[in-house]
Write a structure and sequence with these properties.
- The chain is of the alpha/beta class.
- The chain has three domains: 1-97 and 181-262, Rossmann fold; 109-178, no CATH class; 349-374 and 387-565, Rossmann fold, CATH 3.40.50.
- 36% of the residues lie in helices and 25% in strands.
- It contains 23 helices and 20 strands.
- The strands form four sheets. A six-stranded mixed sheet has the order 6-7-8-3-9-10, with helices on both faces. A six-stranded mixed sheet has the order 16-17-18-13-19-20, with helices on both faces.
- The chain starts with a strand and ends in a 10-residue tail after the last helix.
- 46% of the residues are buried.
Length: 575
Amino acid sequence: MHPLLRIENLTVEFGSEAGTIKAAKKVSFSAGRGEILAIVGESGSGKTVTALSILQLLPSPPANYQTGKILFSADGLQPEDLLKKSRDELKEIRGNKIAMIFQEPMTSLNPVFTCGKQVMEAILVHKKISTVQARTETIEWFTRAQLPDPEKIFARYPHQLSGGQKQRVMIAMAMSCHPSLLICDEPTTALDVSVQKTILDLIRQLQKEHGIGVIFITHDLGLVAEIADRVVAMYKGEIVEQNYVGEIFDRPQHPYTKALLACRPANHRKGERLPVVSDFMENDQSPSDQTGLNARKEPAWVLRQNEKKGVLLSVRNLSTWFAAKKNFLGTSVEFTRAVDDVSFDVYQGETLGLVGESGCGKTTLGRTLLRLIEPTGGKVIYRGQDLLEKSKRELKSMRGEIQIIFQDPYSSLNPRLTIGAALAEPVRVHHLFSERPQIKQRAIELLEKVGLRSEHFRRYPHEFSGGQRQRIVIARALAVSPAFIVCDEPVSALDVSVQAQVLNLLNDLKQEFNFTVIFISHDLSVVRYISDRIIVMNKGKIEESGTADDIYYHPKTEYTKKLISSIPGIHPVGK
């Protein structure tokens, strides 16, 4: 019997004005019925290109399938080479025999149609049934996908659902035609750990019930440990290692696989310097990895409790409510209490972690502190002054002391401005230097501080990787020498190895500049690693707070215990 899918010597090239880039090089592996095969690697490793090639979803040109076969056999009999299929033949296979779930469900779902109508459409394309039957099947799949109140979800539009709910809709759509093979391309990257665990459990449950094969693409080996049977590790377009999941974790053979395992914060004690890929790959020439920042091996600085200084920021009874319902006169009659009567202190020089699921209020709280969102009530006392009583002009003069680093560095940077101009702007606005040569020199110094080079000064944001863009955003925040920085999910969208570089960088810069940080994240393993104290938020309120180790190893509330138990795969080390 033939395997469900077998890829033989697949080479995929992309043509450009600069030349030809080989995104996948002689890739060979198989996926069986009833098994979950994980493909792991960083951005640019070729894993998504390989997956998209299975259904020929890459635009051609510029993509060119230079060599190889993609052999698919739904019934185990004579396999068919998908690369030789016509467009019409592929249309019959896509969504029917082979289905795919993408990383960002919002871009996969049509915003102008209800969720129910979109799943119905997928069913009607491949099944000769009535609209009434298709509607019934859609609601049944919404129920199997564990969506709350499937009848109501059927009538809702994508923007009315949470990230986890949208991903469940995509799973329902993918499974609705009973495919033989399900391809999951980073389906949980943007989700909270608890929602992520629910989605993983759902995929595994449906895979077992229907006996389908699953190809699960991710950069996180923690997820692989949670869900996979076998693992394929890719690096720079090539497969460097493949084996059963137990062998990969217990006896990894290739330096790159060892690097992916080693750089997760959950595998390290608090404050211990995280290794990066270049520590393992002798021939890696990535510019951002050849800097002194990553070459230094001393442990990251960690604020000890007995070193704690005075209170820098004091929050008292802070509330931020949003109108949820208005009457016919336009008066708000119901509110969403995003932040609800919250009080805490931030000590000078510390890193305070703020953690919780999406919708818990942590991002709203961080932005309210900086008055990017106006509060409903309360006090935010910074160096003895209530920020909520400041005029816009007074607040603008304080922006040099208080900065924020956002989750998505690409949307934080103006695509029309060079990196040099983006770094020079805050220096000029806050009158730190007046002469052009001085401003340029300051921008170059900042680039070098975050591990980039002076020649990057004239490049644009699209010319950098995600990790490099995050470094640039950090450099921009440091341009005015702030005393206090809010980091809002700064590493959640990054590969695990790039995440390690950015966490090391933050610790290095914090040691050098001694600024105070509120670090917001839904990942407790990252927050535990970088923070001195942690506040856990739930439904707008503080669930519990304490030292990082106490919260992580000795949680008191069921909510915190649930967050920690949802951390996938590799169990955290002890103290």
